[in-house]
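Structure ticket #2291
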Amino acid sequence: HFTMAGFREMFVYQKSFDLAVRIFRLTKAFPKEELFGLTSQVRNSSRSTCANFGEAYRRRRYKAHLVAKLTDSDSENTETQIHLDMAVACEYATQEQVAPLIALSEEVGLMLNHLIEHPEKLLLK
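Resolution: structure written out below.
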């Protein structure tokens, strides 16, 4: 039986939330002229990864709705990786700073893809 806050107990949510917080901290050092550009884009996509997972969790009654939101979460996670690559290319962050974030994002992606392929693990009975 899941509690109302059950999504917070899931590793994929915890890891995606941690990733969003770590990205927020990293982007505090980005140039001010990127505030409405890359800074907001990478912050938004990383936050959307965990937010979409939370929404997916609430849509566990219907397989198609669940999978659609899980797919949205996975797409946002991929977008986050692209923005992190861009941050390195633009020299706003080093590869050493970004590598652990990409690794965490990859881990989140694997978990999301597992749930997309096996939605019955989350579906309400």
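Closing remark: The mean pLDDT is 95.
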